[in-house]
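user: Here is a favour to ask of a fellow structure person. I have my own habits and do not want them to colour yours. Could you put it straight underneath, so I can go through it closely?

assistant:
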Amino acid sequence: MKILARAAALSALFLSTAAIAQTAPDVAWDITADLTTEIGARPAGSEQEAKARDWAVKRLTALGFKNVRVEPFTVTGFVRGAETAELTAPYPHKLHVTALGYSAPTPKGGLKAELVYFPNLDALKAAPEGSLKGKIAFIDHAMTRTQDGSSYGPYGAARRQGPGIAASKGASGVVIRSIGTDMHRNPHTGATSWPAGTAAIPAGAVSLPDAELIARIARTGKPMTMTLVLEGKAQADMPSGNVIAELPGRDPSLPPILIACHLDSWDLSTGAFDDAAGCGIITAAALRAQAKGQPLRTIRVLWAGAEEIGVFGGAAYARANAGQPHALAMESDFGADRVWRVRFNLSPANKPLRDKLTAALAPLGIAAGAGKANGGADVTAIIAAQKLAVIDLDQDGTRYFDLHHTPDDTLDKIDRKQLEQNVQAWTVVLEIVANEPGPISPE
């Protein structure tokens, strides 16, 4: 009986320890799962984004965070409408299309025009002024899959700048090859912008297989025509806001550590990778760091609003908190696959801190990388305004742009083991930086 009793006690201890070990990773998973299930898509300025803020306040409060609050602001948002595209000549094909954020609506009945193919953005830039009058421009590109996501910058210009350039050359509409690396028939949305003095025109993105189709036909030299319907439009004065919560430190006189994600998503999916998982990761890690004992510095969590359409939440946070000194800023906004690299923007005086962090992350398979950390979109404004130290925990982006801004960004794409590795990495960093007594400053 003693042996059985001892076995039962050991079993109970094991189960208790296992339950405790699952607490933090479950926070990350539960936030990601519940936000995408109970709220779903959260476009900036929408009723769904407002519901997400209410949900976030309740969840963060229930998890034990203090000073949980919403800092409201308004934005010019984008409201999607009907959207179709059809290649009408030389061969009829229905295409999978989605409007880009801030596209103008097409005329009633749609836009029917000649389609002019450009193999890349530079070719469009070289087109003569006025040469696209009454035509639809098609912008192709050759984005490649990379671990660090570095191809997004140069090739993403086709979406960010291309429509404005096409409009300036007289185009009546513009369609781009989606900024992505998948070969699914899912178009990728995302915001575009219009230079001062340039009127918005209808702007959309077709799926990559459809872009390949257009490119093949263009190589034949046969004239192409398209019918395009995009009924979405910009809408001013839509309500948004940032959700902020804190785990107070032992010394409130020390500037806090700011960790961020963004709460909003595009409307095509439930936004699991982009960026519900980021909110789950940083929140779980903050709680796990606190579980080791109240940290010296306050850890402030920012779930930013309206990131997708122009990083308005990050700018609003910097304005609203200009008088609050911060020590360091970090963000998780690149999916949920494993962290493979850490980068820093720390002063030479903080070399011991950097070395300590590098050593602590090494057992997780995370190596220190070259280049300066930038912190992520939602903390860019406060970093620039206060010249803050930054640490980047770089996630593996190999498949990120398969899912980015598509209907496929759903919970089933989250790998729970990789999600947990993210939480571990963030916890390691927060345990160290939140207990750093000395100044933390950038280069």
Q: What stands out?
A: Confidence is low (pLDDT under 50) at residues 1-25. The longest strand covers residues 233-247.
